Amino acid sequence: MPDVLHSLERPELFEKFKAQLYKDFELAGLADYAPKFISNNLNDIYDAVLNSVLLIERKDSTSLMTLLYRIDISKQQLKTASQNSTNNLKQVIAELIIKRVLQKVILKEKYSS
User: Fold this and answer.
1) Domain span at 41
2) What dihedral do alpha carbons 57, 106, 14, 49 form, nearest 10°?
């Protein structure tokens, strides 16, 4: 994952990331599936998001698509990312979720000052 993801190591950005991610899960009707983070370590974040994706997918794929729509990840982005990755689809989805939510947080921070 790109270096921008290492900005999650900044405690204030990590807190905003967690809040935004929870908000997106909640607005998609999936608050119970929102990831629980044990640290701001990128691998831990990825594992937690991947676990949530797997749980939601087991529930039903429509809920997963609702979440992706809510987070603003298009089918085209998903298709392109999966074609350019050696990871499985769920791993690609987890990466896209982390990247997009972090992008939202960084953009809000940049333009709110």
Assistant:
1) 3-108
2) 10
The answer to whether residue 113 sits within a structural domain is no
Each residue of 49-86: pLDDT tens digit?
999 999 999 999 899 999 999 999 999 999 999 999 89
Please say whether the beta carbons of 44 and 38 come within 8 A.
yes
What is the tally of structural domains in the chain? 1
Give the containing element (helix H, strand E) for 62: helix 61-71
Q: pTM of the prediction?
A: 0.91
* Tokens matching residue 111: 């333009």
Phi-psi region of 73 (alpha: psi -120 to 50; beta: other; left: phi over 0): beta
